[in-house]
Amino acid sequence: MSFLQLQGIEKYFGEHRAIKGIDLQIEKGEFVVFVGPSGCGKSTLLRLIAGLEAIDGGKLSLEGRDITQLPSSKRDLAMVFQSYALYPHMSVFENMSFALKLAKAPLAVIKEKVERAAQILNLTPYLQRTPKELSGGQRQRVAIGRAIVRAPKVFLFDEPLSNLDAALRGQTRVEIAKLHRELGATTIYVTHDQVEAMTLADRVVVLRDGQIEQVGSPLELYDRPANQFVAQFIGTPQMNVSTLAQMPVTVRQQAPAGAVGGSIGLRPESVTLQPAGQGLVDGSVELVEALGAETLIYVSTPGGAQLVARQNTRSPLHAGDRVGVSIALEQAHWFDPQGRVVNARD
Amino acid sequence: MSRHSHVSPALVVRTLAAWAVTLLLFFPLGWLFLTAFKTELQAISVPPLFLFEPTLANFHEVQERSDYLLYAKNSVVTSVLSTLLGLAIAAPAAYSMAFFKSKHTKDILMWMLSTKMMPAVGALVPIYVLAQTSGLLDTQLALIIVFTLSNLPIMVWMLYSHFKDIPHEILEAARMDGATLWQELRLVLLPLGMGGLASTGLLCLVLSWNEAFWSLNLTAANGGTLATLIASYSSPEGLFWAKLSAASLMAIAPIVVFGWFSQKQLVQGLTFGAVK
């Protein structure tokens, strides 16, 4: 039996069915990321696990014990909130020791645990300060510290990096990954940022509209998306998806039977550009984004397909240039008219 | 640059207007203060006297004629107890409305406020009869109950707007940290809501102290507050302005002093949530 088990979890807000029967098994020590667009229910699902919202159907069990109806305070989970939610009237030390104090741990133990956590998170000089005297990044670390001091069964992170600026976000992401490696704690992490999901997760759960679209390791999702939604949600820039009708006949002929009337998906790295006349089809350059290490070139074809090509070299192309477009068809993803993947390789 | 270049005509007009309004508001109090130290003859002299030899005779007489301390004690007891009782009822109500909002929270709040729109005299007869049949006429308890009930809507509203500004997640964090409901309230909500509780309490203390309608109608010589004391100088033997002023001054002095020291909290409490 797995460590944390969700069986048919349901949540209603009034008439609205926000979470539609989620089944998920999480193993001990695993780092699982819930990802999806705004309103997909990922934060709600986390709050259901935390016990901050009541579960309306299904069963939640931790280490084989049913905790569906247990209050948050008895679940032995720790949560890091998006807004940090530090206690403003307490010092950093008091913030981090609050849970242990409530659990009536001996003072010496509290002191030792808080000091160790502070050391891990570089917070030792700030222990006597109050949250308002700290920077955003430091507050974030205190929030994480408050969680790790308790050594809970599961860590829950609710978009913990979205209030940080870009540079700090990248840095904190690396720290969280490192922390997870050191502590080996079971972690559920909610984000709308697929880069965070890809870099942190052992397994990613892609949610849409209160349902799981796909569960898998980051590269599984990238290489073998189950449907067009996942294919386009994972990866930047987005996967190119064009209807087969927009594609030249040679492409249409290669399509597996199930994809008739559907569409083809191509990662930007599966599209390469040649001099005009040498590719599968000619197109015209709409926009060139030179990012330094890579260049993104937006091309439109006469059939109406809009494609982005990614290359690791600088490009002499300009908007309006004619180019030949080559497609690595063996890397193509085929979708049926409903957006489900059709496997060409079988 | 000379100092004069800073003084614009608009500033002069505004300053004069501000002084005029301030004097207008302060005049009755100032006049009350002066009259309290005059003799009865000086008090009604025309033209009014601004310079005179002050006397404390009125204060003596007020204390001789009626037991000031009894009324003062009643005022303290009724306003303090009604405030504490009110806070004990309003705080949980405001907590649940601020942190466990339902579809009808706004309606309930509006309904509470709407009860303040009914003139108090509309409820006079039933409340008088209730007090009479339960033997509470002319007791402190009657006033404590009525003050509490009439202040509750304002207390709930004020506390609600204070609590609403406390981020929800902080209480949730406490729950995740293993706090029981009681610990969550005592260790997190109470310290964070202290400002709101204090300013709400202060305002209700002042309102109860100054309340006259119910004191006059439900109490007399035993349970009466200072408002009743003042009223007793107004009619029966004609108007004795100097003594009336002395009694009024003695009645309002404690709460004015109290208000002076807590004005910061009071103003903060009244404007909290309004500008944010």
From TrEMBL, chain B:
Any one GO cellular component localisation term in the record:
plasma membrane
GO-annotated biological processes: transmembrane transport
Record-annotated membrane-spanning stretches: 12-34, 76-96, 108-129, 141-160, 185-209, 240-261
Q: Could you tell me where this protein is found in the cell? A: Cell membrane
**Lineage: superkingdom:** Bacteria
The record describes its membrane topology as: Multi-pass membrane protein
**Which key words are in the record?**
Cell membrane, Membrane, Transmembrane, Transmembrane helix, Transport
Query: Pfam families annotated for this entry?
Result: BPD_transp_1
Which PROSITE patterns does this entry report, sorted A to Z? ABC_TM1
Q: Quick one: where is this thing mainly located?
A: membrane
What InterPro entries is this protein classified in? BP-dep_ABC_trans_perm (IPR050901), MetI-like (IPR000515), MetI-like_sf (IPR035906)
Indicate yes or no for the key word Transmembrane. yes
Domain named ABC transmembrane type-1 is located at 72-262
The UniProt entry's sequence similarity note says:
Belongs to the binding-protein-dependent transport system permease family.
What is the protein's name according to its record? Sugar ABC transporter permease
